[in-house]
Amino acid sequence: MSVYNRELLDHFSNPRHAGRLPDADALGVYGDPSCGDQMWLYLKIEGERIVRVGFEVFGCPAAVATASAFCELVTGRTLDEGLEIGEGDVLDALAGLPDEKIHCSLLAVMAYREAMTDYILGGSAAQAARARAAAAEETTPK
Questions:
Q1: 9 contact partners, CB below 8 Å, separation of at least 6
Q2: What are the backbone angles phi and psi of residue 89, rounded to the nearest 5°?
Q3: Is residue 130 a contact partner of residue 26, using CB atoms and an 8 Å limit?
Q4: What is the mean pLDDT of each run of 10 residues along the chain (142 residues)?
Q5: Is the CB of residue 112 less than 8 Å from the CB of residue 89?
Q6: Cα angle 71, 3, 65; round to 5
Q7: Cβ count within 10 A of residue 84
Q8: Phi then psi dihedrals of residue 57, to 5 deg
Q9: How far apart are alpha carbons 111 and 40 in whole angstroms?
Q10: DSSP 21
Q11: Of 7, 14, 11, 12, the residue nearest 96 (C-alpha)
């Protein structure tokens, strides 16, 4: 018997918005040192609206599922509306988490706040990520 519910397993097995956004306007990175989970959240913004979201996560099934659920919640919202999404909203979207995994619901929320800081500062983290990806592609044998 799994400690994870059906909703969480669905987001883990079929994550929505997984992957980098090469044309991201903002990048937020957040990690939880107590368990080693790490999340990269990419945002594509038009006007004041989040039009596309991508993520990469290093962590357990709950970390992947919470990232997926958060991306579903934030896509299409304004930047300010995105700031209103809290860990309780992520927990609700997943129909809960085991007590020992509740801290995972904070990963995406904090990564979003970091992405907003990056956006306000001109997207320097997103630009650096694009430059690293381009450099890696140039050195990859074809």
A1: 2, 61, 65
A2: -65, -40
A3: no
A4: 82 94 92 86 95 95 95 96 94 92 90 92 76 68 64
A5: no
A6: 10
A7: 10
A8: -140, 140
A9: 7
A10: -
A11: 7
β partners of residue 67: none
From the centroid of its chain, how far is CA 50? 13
Token pair belonging to 131? 């430059």
**Residue from 101, 24, 94, 106 nearest 65 by CA:** 94
Please, what's the largest Cα pairwise distance for the chain?
47
Cβ atoms of 40 and 57 within 8 Å: the answer is: yes
Tell me the domains of the chain and their CATH numbers.
Answer: 6-130 (3.90.1010.10)
- Alpha helices per DSSP H over 14-123: 61-74, 79-83, 87-93, 105-120
d(CA 21, CA 70): 16
Kindly report the pTM of this predicted structure. Answer: 0.87
The encoded tokens of residue 101 equal 């995994």
Give the position of tokens 């907003």. 116
